[in-house]
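Researcher: Can you fold this with coenzyme A in place?
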Amino acid sequence: MPIRSATPDDAAAIAAIYNDAIANTTAVMWHDPKPVSLWRERLTGRPPGHPALVALDDAGAVIGFTTLGPYDTLCGYDDVAEWSLYVTEEARGRGVGRLLAEAVIEAGRSAGLYSVVSRVTAGNAASQKLHDRLGFRRVGVFEKIGHKFGRRHDVIVYQLIL
Ligand SMILES: CC(C)(COP(=O)(O)OP(=O)(O)OC[C@H]1O[C@@H](n2cnc3c(N)ncnc32)[C@H](O)[C@@H]1OP(=O)(O)O)[C@@H](O)C(=O)NCCC(=O)NCCS
């Protein structure tokens, strides 16, 4: 399956996948959709330590994306990145997430990152499995820290040392 760097021209496809996750899952704690223009901005001029990758199907359509983004603006954290990963509902469970994950972690390692951190809403079995498989350590749980769909949610914090 082809995986390549995302470009600003992928903004619409990425926004569609992200907005579907916003509307239908607790994976992301936004409640409202985000505009394509925001993704266009986010995909412009990313440094090597903040890669954005897309996975494509046989027809060249984007079926998943992953990013490493800033963990914190304080300079002492500038070699730490926060990880995000989203796959279209139709393509889930076929190894797309794992391939994207391995590729983006390798890109982060090549760029000299020290560590990748990630937050996973409790109950997201696929994401938890993936983190375990990739060697992330479960650092702890923020109890009931998020709210969505009329409920509060625990969020698990993971860390991978590169
Ligand atoms: C989480 C997500 C990115 C995983 O991507 P995916 O392509 O479905 O995952 P893969 O097919 O590569 O599977 C990864 C691992 O999870 C397991 N898995 C997949 N779906 C699962 C499920 N529903 N329940 C339990 N385990 C599952 C797979 O067996 C695999 O483990 P293995 O390597 O031991 O076989 C995808 O389900 C998704 O986009 N979900 C909605 C958004 C989201 O939750 N993003 C993550 C935010 S932290």
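Model: Folded with coenzyme A in place. The mean pLDDT is 97.
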